[in-house]
Amino acid sequence: MKQITYAGKSFVTGTDLANAILRLTAALGLSHETAAVSIPAIDEDGRITTADLVLGPATEVLAIAIASDREEITDPRIVALLDERTRLLAPARTVASTDPLPGSWSATEL
């Protein structure tokens, strides 16, 4: 599970959902577009609800992994829709090599 902080508020959702939101937010920022999305979340009373977000170039989203006794929230259909939107925003490019893109890095490399 991950806790997402968005517009000064926090909510909890599944790891795959949170990661898809982060990928889409980054792609929207690069393409200077916005999108309204809805994902399942856990409200303050511990009930499953829906979080509605408007994401765009100026959106600041923070996702932190948290420990939880609850079952992971999953929705592969929503993750696939978010990832498809992300893919459509990516500029087409020819890949000439399997080397990482210049300037790219992973936290595991630090």
Order of helices and strands: EEHEEEH
Measured on Cα atoms, how large is the radius of gyration? Answer: 15 Å
Main sheet overview: 3 strands, antiparallel
SS-based structural class? alpha+beta
Strand fraction band?
A: 25-35%
Low-confidence stretches: none
Percent helix? 25-40%
What kind of assembly state do the chains in view correspond to?
single chain
Distance between the termini: 24 Å
Average the pLDDT over all residues and give the rounded result: 87
Supply the number of helical segments.
Answer: 2
Q: Rough shape?
A: globular
Strand order of the largest sheet: 2-1-5
Total discrete domains: 1
Number of strands: 5
Tell me briefly what this model is.
The chain has 110 residues and is of the alpha+beta class. 28% of the residues lie in helices and 28% in strands.
Structure description:
The protein is of the alpha+beta class. The chain has one domain (2-90). The chain contains two helices and five strands; from the N terminus they run ββαβββα. The chain has helices spanning 15-31, 76-89; strands spanning 2-6, 9-13, 35-42, 48-55, 61-65. Strands 2-1-5 form a three-stranded antiparallel beta sheet, with helices on one face. Strands 3-4 form a two-stranded antiparallel sheet. Strand 3 and strand 4 (48-55) form a beta hairpin. Helix 1 (15-31) runs parallel beside helix 2. It is globular and about 40 Å long.
